[in-house]
Specification:
The chain has about 750 residues and is an alpha/beta fold. It contains 31 helices and 22 strands.
Length: about 750
Amino acid sequence: MDYLKGLNSTQRAAVEQIKGPVMIVAGAGSGKTRVITYRVAHLIKSGVDAFNILVLTFTNKAAKEMRDRITSVVGTEAKNIWMGTFHSVFAKILRVEAEKIGYPSNFTIYDTDDSKSLIRAILKEQQLDDKLYNANFVYSRISSAKNNLISPAEYLKNEHIQAEDFSTGRGRMGEIYQIYAARCYKAGAMDFDDLLFKTNVLLREHPDVLYKYQNKFKYLMVDEYQDTNYSQYLIVKKLAAITENICVVGDDAQSIYAFRGANIQNILNFEKDYPDLKVFKLEQNYRSTQNIVNVANSIIANNKNQLKKDVFSQNEEGDKIKIARAFSDNEEGKIVAESIMQERAVRGMDYKNFAILYRTNAQSRAMEEALRKLNVPYKIYGGLSFYQRKEIKDLIAYFRITFNPNDEEALKRVINYPKRGIGDTTVERIIVAADKNNLTLWETIIDAHKYIEPRSAGPVANFGTMIQSFQVMAKNSSAYDAALHIAQHSGLLKDLYDDKSVEGLSRYENIQELMNGIKEFSEREDIDQRTLDIFMQDVALLTNDDNDKNPNADTVSLMTIHSAKGLEFPHVYVVGLEENLFPSQMSLNSRSDLEEERRLFYVAITRAEKKLTVSYATSRYRWGSLTSCEPSRFIDEIDARYLELDFKQPQKSPAGNPFFEERTAWSSKPSTSGDAFTKPKPAAPKTTSILPKAHVPTEGFAPSDTSNLQVGMEVEHERFGFGKVINLEGNKPEMKATIFFQGLGQKQLLLKFAKLRIVN
């Protein structure tokens, strides 16, 4: 039992408790992953069949890391464990059981873009105002309903929901949901939320299936349990109902996903479901210094709704937490960038040891500009995923209709790409003919000469024949060979190859990178099935955390705090600690929302290992106006013993925190260290009338034809002034240009509306 020797007493007790309901409350940096993996390994070492163990995570990355660690203890037996994200595990079950609920086993999984595209099509068909029924809002509303297990029929019957929709002028929301669900069903497709919603339907309506999996999964472990929603909670509870050998691991203090439907009550009330529950609290933080842990504790102590624990660290005491005050958001960026350069020069650290965390994506602008001016390499996390790029989605759409030709979203995406004489009018005729004859689009396409006028029927029928040839090829080939055949014979590869622009070359290289990934998948030895449809399933279930191709690149990391959960860095800067920004203005209406914001700050603090800096600006541009900002209440809540300040102490201050009044005047005495964070700053302006100087357009300003706009060209915008085109993406008429404007930074503009004058 060598693997048990490195555990502390509480960790070991949690690992060895393999029977009955168990809750492991794992504080930040407390060795949670080690406990989960060793507990699973201990189950196998104690004689439990790996096939009877189910481990549920929230990212594929976490699942892979756990499986690798378990393999190091128990060997190849670890391959037999059912382990993965909620969505990937239940997608696997649905593939086997789908026909019981009326779906084909080769159902397509719609990503968010697919779902929104379908919603936009429905809104257009129903002639609804797409500003009132915004596709993002409609998608979010449907997602929320599914996560609460509300079907379209129940949605329409629910008086409270209907009253809410009618009060906002969106009385047809239930009808849209009903049409959306019917269209997904007809296309043999499930969206992300369906993977859980349909699993609940399957287990509820088919007791034999429930009994089958209850007896298969005799031991359940759920990671990040505080992030589960109602749908996930019910699935887990049903599966564990017979044996009650369920172990959940999580930290209520890190529950930050209520906007996605996560319900913190799942972990707070877990004991009510299992009265004989055994609770283990992992309270020793191995990640951070004592000062960082003490600051985190002083913050989270202000939350009333929590599981009490006493997190501590036996690491070095460490530096005190620095509070930086800046005149503006741009100066805040400058201070942070200069601090990184100084720390790197003095301590010889790599850029990858630094992370800048913010509440909203918009805050990255000032940070990016400051880092660029000092030539500091950085990477923004949470940007466009590799698999969301147009060329990648185009080729994957071909893969999708090869395996599920009823997938209407994929079909409409590529039926005329590359161009093959099937224009929008012909597509409309196919849709009308399908609807008139109660057929799917695919059934209409393969019998085009019967349903489509002769002039258009030829190209449509040829497209159908091509897809049928892909189906034959895919059945008898490896994932790589099938993918290469489809890429070549669809014409997509040639179309991209023929585009010799910088963007065209980049798109072609992206397809090459996709093919490299498929080749790697085809040669994997740790899976039994290496066909293209299995690769497709893996891609559909990727989370944003799984797309980082080069995690070891030497760059400063910029990301929202939500994206940073689960990560750690030696030096962390948490920026923008201002009222109405952090905490967010939208969180100030209820205690539960405010407490979630406080948990978010707790998560930000506990990403830091060695040094932590918190900053705020006394003024920030919002909608073109410079507004005064007040330091966040969260700064008030930090115990002043752990702060490094150069403030004059006010006369009255609770807990000795100098931010309570003023919040507050910086001392006029000069810094002895020369550190940018302890230098006195000028007082913030009291007015809000300072506006950026407006650009005066060149006399006779007239927009140019931008159809031939290229990267590197200099342009003029009526309002933003002169700038340089640094990137172009998308296809006409939806092409977007990223332009760097003098004094304003980067802006992305839709060319058909931009009104640009090309200077040269």
